[in-house]
Design goal:
The protein is built from eight helices and seven strands. It has about 260 residues and is α/β, with parallel strands linked by helices. A seven-stranded parallel β-sheet has the order 3-2-1-4-5-6-7, sandwiched between helices. Helix 1 packs across helix 8 and helix 4 packs parallel to helix 5.
Amino acid sequence: MVTTVNRMKDKIVFITGASSGIGEACARKFASQGANLILNARNVPRLDELKKELETTFQIAVFLLPFDVRDRNIVAASLKSLPENWKNIDILINNAGLVIGIDKEFEGDLDEWDIVIDTNIKGLLTMTRLVVPGMIERGSGHIINIGSIAGEAAYPGGSIYCATKAAVRFLSDGLRIDLVDTPLRVTNIKPGMVETNFSVVRYRGDKQTADNFYKGIRVLTGEDVAESVYFAASAPPHVQIAEILVMPTNQATGTISYKEAIE
């Protein structure tokens, strides 16, 4: 039998990109603390499995809203369709994001860039625009954006992704300024090296190359990042944790890390 401390009991937490990686880990963490969840992703079968597991294990309620955050009309219609008892969202975790390829800026695929930019920036903006006004009306809420250490400085083969995560950084800062006269809080979580399916997408489905990238260093897991997300969310209402940069112990910057030689 699983016992929860219910620190988030009866709160509604909306997580985008919740079917895997950091999003899935956040869903598990908040469910374990008694929160009810609205889970979004495009992978409907995986969302269905996760809903059944979390509701059974933690005795909480899960509402599924499967859509692509790039489609603002579907996002708006989906949010409008929420039952009344699900509309009062307490925490929005803008997690949906990706990177495709490690091409040089003058060699990249324009269509892939559209997917990355529309997901990482415009999708986050759409969710923020549609959810935050309700939080302002209710006088409470927390927006947690999953950024990246990549938003701190560019690295080879990553300029487009780095630019999108730099945008997340400044959009978080700008929103915090815009909300300074309200009780709402804004947090930017900036992970370093994390081993999730994210890296497989980066290498266009080449799992072996993705796995090799992490050899020789103990990197973060989605669960590690979820702990930081929860830490920010569970701070007292008068405490706003603006940003958290979390890295493996053997990573110093976005481009400097120590990896043991593997024979």
